[in-house]
Structure formats: C-alpha cells, structure tokens
C-alpha cells in the first residue's frame, strides 16, 4: 500500500457518485445509507487485498489507520464534488444525496465544509498515509487534522440537528459516526504515545530576544482572541446590549443565520477555545508547559477549518442576503476573522520549530 495507490482508490469515488445518482432506488433514505456503508466497506476491502498482494518491500505497515485514511480520502473526493455541485461547477453527481442523504449539506456552510474536506483534509489524509507507511513522525500533523475534523463535525452535526434542516434528519446522518470516533481514537493514540525528548533544565533561558518578543505578541494575540470569542458568543446568543447587538446585526449577521452553523461555531469557540487561549497565554510566559505544542496543533487545525467554513459561508451567495456580511462591515469582518486564523497558525509554527522553552524541565526547588 502506498500513497499513489490510495490516490487512485480515492478517484473511484467519481464513477461511483455518477452511478448512484442515476439509480432510482437511491430515493429511499435507508437504501442509500446501506449502499453508502457497503461502498465504504468495499473500499476498505480493496485496501486489505492490496496490502496482501503487495511485494514485501512495499507491504503496508500493520496499522488500522491506513484503512481509515484511505477510506476517508475516498469520501473526501465525494465531499469535493458536493462542494462543486453546490457551487454550480458540476451537475448530476450528488443531487440524490441532498434529498435523501444529508439535506443540511445543501447550505453555504455545507458547501464550505465539503470544500475544506475535499482539499485540506484530502491532502492531510495522503500525507498521513505516507507517514504511516514509511514510519515517519506525524504527531503534529495528526493532531492538526484531529483539531480540524473535530471542529468540523461538532458544528456540522449540531447545526444539522438544531438548525433549519433539523426536522429532516435521515439515516445517512449516522454515516458521520466514523468521522467522530476515528479522530478521537487517533488523537488519543498520539497524545499517549512517546513525545520527543525534553530539553535540559534551564534551557528556556536561552530564548533569543526575537523569540521573547514574538512570544509576547502571541500572548497578546491569545488575549485578543479570547475577547473576540466572548463578543461573538454573546452576540450569537442574542444579547440585547447595544454593542453586542450592533456587532451581530451589522458586522457578522451570519451569527443569526437560521441554519445555526454560525451560532454553533461561535459557542464552540466560547466553550473550548477560550480556556485554550488562557492556557496558551500561561504557557507562553511560564517555561516547561510540555502540553503546549500539542494544544497548539489542535487549536490551529480547529480554527483553520472553522474559519474557512465560517468566512466562506458568511460571504457566499447561497446564504440569505440578510445574513451575509454587509459591504460596509468588510474591513472589520476581515480583520477579526483573519486574526482568528493567523494567530493560531503562528503559535503552531512557533511551538513546532522552537519547542525548547515548552519542553524544558522545570527546576525543582
């Protein structure tokens, strides 16, 4: 098993989608669920057979996540075509799925979430497959993916259940189960595996002036994100306070979109990312917080996915005009939302390329 084989297997999704779209029986939600489950199982079987037929020098490592990421790469191609069809670039590939599969995908957020899965996640799947097969260290990449897909699934599923399409949940809703369980299992495996070695005690004192200043800027950026998340969540919750109402109505009206995706994303940032911002600010000031590099990857992955979907849906023509960002609010909108993307990515890069400050042993008194 190798990355090129996984790439070829993923392309099988294109004819499968076309065939399914032309089958009248796919108008039955239960049949669609069973058929889709069978296709995913068949993709896993192809991987199994390929691994047994491969020469010893190219045999797959005995790792169950090779199957997982190959199947996920297959579905990522499906998701890409969902996004393309929603945007009008292709036709008659996934129309059947919007009716009897997951109707809540027929939204601006559904379009953007599938675009990200079909591009960003797709690249991650192939990269992770390469790392697993060749036994290359992949802790940071794996946690980045876990943060990204878990943010995606929480917003998608809760938005689908509570939003505009919550009354038409179909059996195919449960096709999302592996996308919740597998990232949790993979993340648990990574977090409980051996971390690269710590730095000698006191090595944090060797930080350059540049790193000290950069860490100070990142700490201030984390505090800024904390404030942004508070304002967003309060506005999304419908606060009658003038300033929060002004922000929700005139700057980010997508927070009130009836699909609820914007609201769920804001509340997710509030519930989980605010504590993370507090932890990051502490870790940037106090040496020896060994958990920071892992947390930075999770935050960076989550905010990247969250912001790609949120920004795209806030501007997409598929979103009702009343909930799109007004032209007059674009400068503030872009400043706020790009900050939510960029600051976590810079933190992730900082923790990856120069982790000594965080991995240093604390001096015992």
Rg, nearest Å: 22 Å
Count of separate DSSP helical elements = 14
What is the N-to-C order of secondary-structure elements (H for helix, E for strand)? Answer: HHHHHHHHHHHHHH
Shape: flat
The average pLDDT score comes to: 90
Helical residue percent?
A: 55-70%
Number of E-state strands: 0
Stretches with pLDDT under 50, minimum 5 residues: 200-204
Strand composition percent = under 5%
Report the structural category: mainly alpha
Span between termini: 52 Å
Main sheet characteristics: none
Outline the secondary-structure elements.
Layout: H1 3-11, H2 13-21, H3 29-53, H4 64-87, H5 95-100, H6 108-133, H7 139-162, H8 177-192, H9 209-236, H10 242-251, H11 261-285, H12 292-315, H13 330-353, H14 356-359
Helix pairs in contact: 1-4, 3-4, 4-6, 6-7, 6-12, 7-8, 7-11, 7-12, 9-10, 9-11, 9-13, 11-12, 12-13
Give an overview in words.
- The protein has 365 residues and is an all-alpha fold.
- It has 14 helices and no strands.
- It has helices at residues 3-11, 13-21, 29-53, 64-87, 95-100, 108-133, 139-162, 177-192, 209-236, 242-251, 261-285, 292-315, 330-353, 356-359.
- α6 (108-133) packs antiparallel against α12 (292-315).
- The protein is flat, with a radius of gyration of 22 Å.
Attribute tags:
single chain; 365 residues; mainly alpha; 70% helix; 0% strand; flat
Would you summarize the structure shown here?
This protein is an all-alpha fold. The protein contains 14 helices and no strands.
